[in-house]
Structure formats: C-alpha cells, structure tokens
Amino acid sequence: YGVSAGSANMVSFLAGQHGRNHKFYTEYAFRKEYASFDSYVKHHNFANLDYVYGTLSNHDGEYPVDYEAFAANPTGFTVIACNALDGSAKYFVKSDVHYDDFNIMKASSAVPVACEPYVIDGVPYFDGGIVDPVPVQKAIDDGYDRIVLVLTRPKDVLREQKRDIAPARILRHSYPAAAERLLNRYATYNDEVALAKEYGRDGRVLILAPDDLCGLSTLSKSFEGLELMYRKGYAAAGAIANYLAN
User: What does the DSSP assignment read for 52-74?
Assistant: First the structure.
C-alpha cells in the first residue's frame, strides 16, 4: 500500500531496484525540473510529476523502472488517491500500472494547490494523503494481519490543522469536496496513527517512524536531512525480518 511519494517508493521496491529511491531523493530532487517555483510557473505544478514518473522513469529515462521485474513480482500493490470531485478515496491496484504508464503514482502524489489534480480516465485526483494517509484499516479489511507501517513523521507527534487552512480556502473555489478533506487531514491522520498503535499492541502492526523530521517537510528538503532520514530508516528496517518471522 503506497500513499503519495510512498507509492513510487513501492514500485522500486517491488522491482528489486535497491538504491533507486535514494538516488531520486538525494540527487534528482534538487533539479529545478523535478520540483521548483519555475516548474510551478511553467506547468502549474511545483513538483513536475510527468518529469519524475515519466521522463526519469520510463524505459528510455535516466533511471527507468524495471517494469518487467515489477510486473513479474507476485506481490499485490495498492495506491491511494483522492477523487478531487467528491473527496472519496480511490484505491488503484497493480493492474492499473502499465509499461511507461505510472499515472496512478502521479495522481497519488498531486499535492493540492502546489499541484493541479492529475486526471485519469476523466477523473481528477489529488494526493492520497488527504483522504487515507495511513491505510492500515484498509489493509486489515483486505485480510492482512501482519502489517509493516512506514511513517515519515514521528509517530507520537500530532499533525496540526493550521498549515492546511490557507490551501483549503484556495482549493474550495474549484474542488470543495477535496478542500474539506484537506482541511480535516490532520484529524484523519491522527486518528489513523492512533488506530495503527492500537493494532500494534496486539502484534498486527509494526510501526517504523523517524524520531525527528531532520529539517524536512513535504516541499522543502536538504541533502543532509534526506541522507540522515534515509540512514535512520534503513537501520530501523532491521526490525522487519524478526517481526514477520514471529
């Protein structure tokens, strides 16, 4: 299950391309073509999703996805996006990914206001993080009872509403249902993390989360912060094998 950029991370993981995500975050992400004010002016998207998930990732890109390996991996794959028209959660599946077609990751990663909604089959979508940011209950409902949850925020720090108020006001003029989701994202996230902790107490969920944000945020970054976060996450992942084995 992948949400926003996490959905793209999972593609590399399922394709067995160790180190690919690291290169994207610590090298490509600093290019103006990847994410910048220039990109926003030219494409109406701060993060140029077509560049990230197309130009760089297609078969003729600088670091293409090994699509054959991805498709051959029998592991299931669910990507969450928010329907911009009605605010509902859309759960894309692995069969929605095709050769040189990673559109569902673009849809899941379209941060409201910073990006225009990404349209698939005539339906505009925004970042899945505003509708189902921690889809543990979805995984439980789908029948899974051993879940590894990877968070990019400290698990004991509540998300606050204040940073979403202004973007939600802007969004309300064009996509009121999505704006409502954005306005209440803080509560959705906090409730879902609390639920994950509850499941964690009976062994159904292992939560991996950073102890601090290393100076990072959704749209701001530094090489040092990214590298430190990566190393912390890599070390924390050592707990996964024992969790799944017991």
Answer: IIIITTSTTSSS---HHHHHH--
Tokens of 122: 């005539």
Give me the pLDDT at residue 218, please: 74
82, two tokens: 């928010």
Assigned token pair, 108: 């899941």
Show the tokens assigned to 126: 């925004």
Which residue in 142, 134, 125, 122 sits closest to 159, CA to CA?
A: 134
At 192-243, the pLDDT tens digits run 999 999 999 999 999 999 999 998 887 778 999 999 999 999 999 999 999 9
Partners of 147 in the β-ladder: 205
78-83 and 123-127 strand pairing: antiparallel
Phi, psi of 244 (to 5 degrees): -75, -25
8 Å CB contact between 127 and 108:
yes
Q: Is 127 exposed, middle or buried (0-12, 13-18, 19+ CB in 10 A)?
A: buried
Q: What's the pTM value of the predicted model, to 2 decimals?
A: 0.95
Distance, CA of 107 to CA of 80 (rounded, Å): 9
CB atoms within 10 A of CB 36: 15
Q: How far apart are the two ends of the chain, measured CA to CA in Å?
A: 22
What Å distances lie between residue 175 and 11, 61, 127, 170, 179, CA to CA? 29, 33, 13, 9, 6
The two three-digit tokens of residue 63, written as one number: 């670091």
* Closest by CA position to 81, among listed 45, 118, 136: 118
Distance CA 81, CA 16 (A): 24
